[in-house]
Amino acid sequence: MEKFKEQATAQLFEKGLITENQFEEIKTYRNLNLFSLNAELKLFLYLSVILFTSGIGILIYENIDSIGHIAILSLLLVVIVVCFYYCFKNSKGFQKQETTFDHPVVEYLVLAGNILTCIFIGYLQFQYKPFGEHYGLATLVPTIVSFFCAYYFDNRSVLTIAITGLAAYVGLSVTPQDIFNDSNNFYASQNLSYSAVMLGILLILWTIYSRRISLKTHFGLVFLTFALHIISIASISNLLSYDTLTWMIFALILAVSTYYFYKASYDYKAMSLYVFMIVYAYIGGNIFVFRIFENVDFSDMWTLFILLLPAYFVGSIIMFIKLIKNFHKEIEA
Question: Which stretches are transmembrane (predicted)?
């Protein structure tokens, strides 16, 4: 890597893009062998927030009878107020473009305050039911708070919490175990599957609208990532439906989704979108082919299928690697 950097610097000097003095200064700086701890420090800050909020949850769970509900809620409220007071005091206010803070601690205090707010509202609803039997409001309120914090403080981590809360409000499972479990609501209710697709479409439309008005355009990749997973998982789940019309509709939805995210991955130059798009398309494509030929009798050709199966999977892996390499070359060009 160092040799590559030296060659790149030498090429800049040879092309006259930097002066000889600048070239020597770059060499001198690199010879100091300095390295940044920024990523490591941010990782420790993130882990600190996760461990702190997890500790609060464990503390509540293990001492709920001895501490008392009012004391727990009061403690949570005090910590939340302190977090947000510091954040509002040191923030630059809402801005449409990407915002950076002078001190990285602010970003993680926003995350901590937001998580504690979700815990506070959830615990309040569980114990005192201020929203009555409308448990959806206990999900919607922290979701709205999370969206506000995400846009006001320009925080992607909080944005993921907000979108997850929105999905939970719609009724979607958020764990892989629930999504692919036979008892999951995707199988039990077609309405939920269509709701998942509609939620994914709304996330896409919001991303398009945000780009047009230049509102936090860097959030687009987060929205599209959620949309890709939600639409694709709902579609693949329903490809296994016994109803012919249902699985054909969702096969069409998956095909349209694959095409859109193929274009979006190049537009955003996002490797993650491209990789998951291929994975979902591959899984859905195989299921679709199986459904098409499920009533055809291939009993006389099983031996041939077994022989061709290893070659098929090896060829798929080679094609996958080739597609990734080509994508990387194209976005770097």
Answer: 43-61, 67-88, 108-128, 134-153, 158-180, 192-209, 221-239, 245-262, 274-293, 305-324
Which of 152, 170, 188 is the last residue in one of the domains?
170
One domain, residues 109 and 31: no
Total structural domains in the chain?
2
**Stronger pLDDT, 332 or 323, i.e. the higher one:** 323
Report the pLDDT value the prediction gives residue 177, as an integer from 0 to 100.
Answer: 47
Instruction: Report how far residue 18's alpha carbon sits from residue 5's, in angstroms, rounded to the nearest whole number.
Output: 15
For 161, phi and psi rounded to 5 degrees?
Answer: -65, -40
Q: Is pTM, for the whole model, over 0.85?
A: no
Say if residue 15 is exposed, middle or buried (CB neighbours under 10 Å; 0-12, 13-18, 19+): exposed
Residues 29 and 126 in one domain: no
What's the pLDDT band for 176 if we cut at 50, 70, 90? very low
Which tokens is 32 given? 């100091």
What pLDDT does 215 receive? 92
Is 143 a domain residue? yes
* Residue 261 near residue 213 (C-beta atoms within 8 A): no
Q: Residue 197: what pLDDT?
A: 92
Query: Which amino acid, 183?
Result: S
Average pLDDT over residues 299-316: 78
CA dist., res. 105 & res. 82, Å (int) = 13
d(CA 215, CA 319): 38
The 10 Å Cβ neighbour count of residue 281 is: 20
Give 1: exposed, middle or buried? Use CB within 10 Å, 0-12, 13-18, 19+. exposed
